[in-house]
Specification:
The protein has 123 residues and is mainly beta. It is built from no helices and ten strands. It has a four-stranded antiparallel β-sheet, with no helix packed on it. The protein is globular, with a radius of gyration of 14 Å.
Length: 123
């Protein structure tokens, strides 16, 4: 379990609100929306907006640990944020997640992004 005394944690949603087929979109006051995904009974939080276009990833379909963008069918690994297939080449931001009595908590002030193969400016 993450140390909840550090950082800005929000109660994003409950575990009952997340299924295995779609993500659950959570709007953040004063910030960008995040997406909550369930993979093998574990929960992950990423940026909701596709890095290739202005699409909500929560409108895409989850298969295994991949989410497919509903606009151009590029995919991301929801467990790491890694862009997996073209045209998505810039990775997603991911956020620490903690569970507390069925509530999914997300630390929104600590996004991490693994380095992309292509820098966003080059696209």
């Amino acid at each position: 379990m993450e140390n909840l005394s550090e950082g800005r944690w929000i109660a994003a949603c409950t575990t009952d609100e997340v299924d295995d087929t779609f993500g659950t979109r959570v709007d953040i006051e004063g910030g960008d929306a995040i997406a909550i995904f369930r993979v093998n009974d574990a929960y992950y939080a990423t940026a909701d907006r596709c890095t290739h276009g202005n699409a909500s990833l929560c409108e895409g379909i989850v298969e295994g640990k991949s989410i497919e963008c509903p606009f151009h069918m590029g995919t991301f690994d929801v467990t790491t944020g890694k862009a997996l297939t073209f045209p998505c080449v810039v990775n997603l931001a991911t956020y620490p997640v903690s569970l507390n009595d069925g509530q999914i908590l997300v630390r929104i002030d600590a996004p991490t992004t693994i380095p992309s193969l292509v820098k966003e400016k080059e696209l």
